[in-house]
Amino acid sequence: MPKPRIITGLDIGTSAIKALVAAKVPGSSEVQILSQVVEPCSGVRRGVVINPEEVSQKISSILEEVEDKTSQKRINSVCCNIGGSHIFIIPAHGEVAVSRADQKISQEDVERVLQAAQTFPLPANKEILDISPREFIVDGEGGIKEVLGMQGVKLEVEIFAICAFSPYYKNLTQTLLNAGLQIDDLIASPLASARAVLAPRAKELGVAVLDIGAGTSDLAIFEEGDLIHTVVLPIGSGHITSDIAIGLQTDIDIAERIKKEFGSCVLRKEKQKIEIPQEEKPLVVPQKLLVKIIEARMSEIFEQTDKELKKISRQGLLPAGIVLTGGGAKLPGIVEFAKSKLKLPARVGKIQGDFAGLQEDPSFSTVCGLVLQGAELEEEGPSWGKGILNKLKRIFRIFVP
Question: What CATH code would you report for 230-347?
């Protein structure tokens, strides 16, 4: 029996780092969870590593704990997310002449046209993280997804390039390298979350996934199976905690506890007041005031989401609706609140695949998506320009000053 391959997903978030280690037998689609660790962290602000040394030390500590739990000699490589509102998307176009004499489109032609699409000028200190092809065009005929073996003279492609601010990208890669890790892949946080919670049918119909983290909310929108828009909003559930601390004039740790234990987007008839035990005297909070504080910030998140939908003319027009995930999706009443604000079907995302005990926890969507992506790396061929060669090029780019 083939030896299982160990895959490690590392989700570096604003308030916590999550590590998930799984085993995958080559040739099988199933993954088996070996260990998971969640540790609070500092040195990350709104999804961006601002103190590489501090975060690197925390990662090393977490991996030591994981190795102890799994009896692994050493975890050498990870699939990691890259987050922050510096991530943006740009449409681009490429075209080449088909190279073969018999005019059959080869894999080399596909790779050449994808490279051609990435030759557009970028602003200073910006670089391409990944690409998402939308369609191929053969001799003027568009809407084609698979072109290998087709005949034609001219091959074109429309892509979305997912880009990032270079200094933040290098901060993250340096953090991982300082922790003694090789980088199997770096994936934009919205795409990692989407990988975990979206089924192919939903992507085909039209769907958005909104991952509400502590410092940011990641939005990715899909239609006809392809990514059509992504953005990272600089607001998250951590802002709700801050609002509660200010509004109730209480300690930030108590505010976080209030949010987790009593927070809601809707009024509960059975409780008019909430009493929180403290060292001196209990803190009594009118439930109506707490809901009002939470509603204000959640309204802002959904209003910005709605603006992004409007930008691409999908406001209220996604048949599969919006899938909510991330720690912020645990707030009671959030599904009904999202439906009323966005005028779309809404649900809390369930993690796809064999992640026993984690399927119902939306805060693990990003790290589960990273593990699923890692499981595919060895299996995938050089399709859509995302073969092993392209990934190696991206990794070697880290070492270029």
Answer: 3.30.420.40
